[in-house]
Amino acid sequence: MRIKTNLTSGIIFGVLSIILLLLVPAQVAIPTFDTGGPSPRIIPYLVLSGMLLCSIGLIVESLVFKREKVVVFDFKVEKAGLLVLGLVLLFGILMVQFGYIVGVVVVLPLLLHALGERKPFIYIFTLAGGIGVYYLFIEIFNISLPAFGG
Question: What is the spatial distance between Cα 76 and Cα 83, in angstroms, rounded to a whole number?
Fold first, then answer.
């Protein structure tokens, strides 16, 4: 698959910035009392407006000035990266739905297997480390992570 990077990224991030600009009023509340200072929405609006302007610049550079970098995306070469990305997404879903421990116990062994690790000690060590991080956050940092059952 051949991808025109300027045009593709300009369109994707342009659409994303427009969607996020429309969502800002629903996500960032304005304080009840006006303090005379800038609104909490100013930073998101500035960042998203800058992103939209840069996206428009990329589209103009691609279509008007014909400056484009074409990247060949080969699924066979990128398979490992896509698999890791999918496992990270799976971890996020499992963590929200079933808890951090379930996510660690399911995803880390799959990730190790996908990356070619076959030694049982590494699996045990990684799972113990993942569970240890959970208790570190709970007991030492006093930060709650989703437990069993989300």
Answer: 11
User: What are the sequence ranges of the domains in the chain?
Assistant: 2-72, 78-140
Q: How many CA atoms lie within 13 A of 80 on its CB side?
A: 6
Tell me the pLDDT tens digit for each residue of 44-71.
999 999 999 999 999 999 999 999 888 8
Are the CB atoms for 4 and 67 separated by under 8 Å?
no
